[in-house]
Every structure is written in C-alpha cells, then in structure tokens.
C-alpha cells in the first residue's frame, strides 16, 4: 500500500535526521574542548553524509546515513599562555566548530525531521479515514 510505503520512507528520513542531530549536538557540546597537553589536538568537528539506498523489496529509494566524517578545516587558535596545551608562542588550538553554523544545521535537521513526521501523521490519518469508510460501507 502506498501510504504504508510513505510512512516507511518518512521513518527512514526521521532516523537519518535524528542521527544528524546527534552529531550536531556532539559538535556543540565540544565546541570549547581543547587539548590537555602541549601539542594535543582539540575536538574535531564531525559531519554526517547521507546516501540513497535502494529497497528492492518495496522498490523505493530510502535515505540512510552514509558515514560520519571529520571536518578537515584547520583548528582555530586563541592566545592563552597559561593553558597547559599552549604552544611555545602561547597559542592554544581550539576546535574547528562554529556554533552559529551548528545551530543552523540543527534547525535544518529539525525542519526535515518535522516534515517527515508530518508525512507519517498525514498518512496515518488517511489510512484511518479509509478504514472508517470501509467499516461504514
């Protein structure tokens, strides 16, 4: 039934966006995490990539998390000569996490999640109305 397939696709989308939100949350939580010793790298931002996977049983293309990779952008630095991870010039490497970018990504993931939830709610409503029509026939 097409409505069940729509709900299945929306479920896959919600799972993928949920995984994305988890990674974004981890990035946000570690936005200020530095190394503990001299020369140690701080937290490195992670990025989620998606892929389309063919579900041959239902003949549908479903979204899935492809992989979680590390952002290769350079670390930022701040001057703090008293920090244990400071280099010889007094600079400490800080994560390559931009909280503003993470918040925008989180908002986009949230909107996608909500859109998929809307598909499930609408499909469920249509199925219930169909069942009601069949009962009264």
Rg, rounded, reads: 22 Å
| Category by helix and strand content | alpha+beta
Shape: elongated
Number of strands: 4
The first-to-last residue Cα distance is: 20 Å
Strand content: 15-25%
Tally of individual domains: 1
Continuous helix count? 2
What percent of the residues sit in helical stretches (DSSP H or I)? 40-55%
Strand line-up in the sheet with most strands: 1-2
H/E topology pattern: HEEEEH
Low-confidence stretches: none
Query: Quick one: biggest sheet?
Result: 2 strands, antiparallel
What do the pLDDT scores average to?
A: 93
Kindly describe this structure.
The structure is a single chain. By secondary structure, the protein is of the alpha+beta class. The chain has one domain. It has a two-stranded antiparallel ribbon with strand order 1-2. A two-stranded antiparallel ribbon has the order 3-4. Helix 1 packs antiparallel against helix 2.
Topology summary:
Elements: H1 2-29, E1 46-55, E2 60-70, E3 76-79, E4 91-94, H2 99-136
Antiparallel strand pairs: 1-2, 3-4
């Amino acid at each position: 039934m097409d409505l069940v397939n729509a709900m299945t696709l929306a479920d896959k989308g919600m799972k993928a966006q949920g995984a994305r939100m988890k990674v974004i949350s981890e990035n946000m939580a570690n936005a200020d995490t530095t190394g503990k010793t001299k020369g140690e790298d701080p937290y490195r931002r992670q990025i989620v990539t998606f892929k389309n996977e063919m579900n041959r049983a239902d003949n549908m293309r479903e979204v899935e998390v492809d992989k979680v990779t590390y952002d290769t952008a350079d670390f930022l630095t701040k001057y703090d000569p008293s920090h244990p991870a400071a280099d010889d010039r007094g600079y400490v490497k800080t994560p390559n996490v931009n909280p503003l970018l993470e918040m925008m990504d989180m908002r986009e993931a949230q909107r996608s999640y909500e859109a998929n939830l809307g598909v499930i709610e609408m499909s469920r409503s249509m199925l219930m109305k169909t069942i009601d029509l069949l009962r009264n026939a």
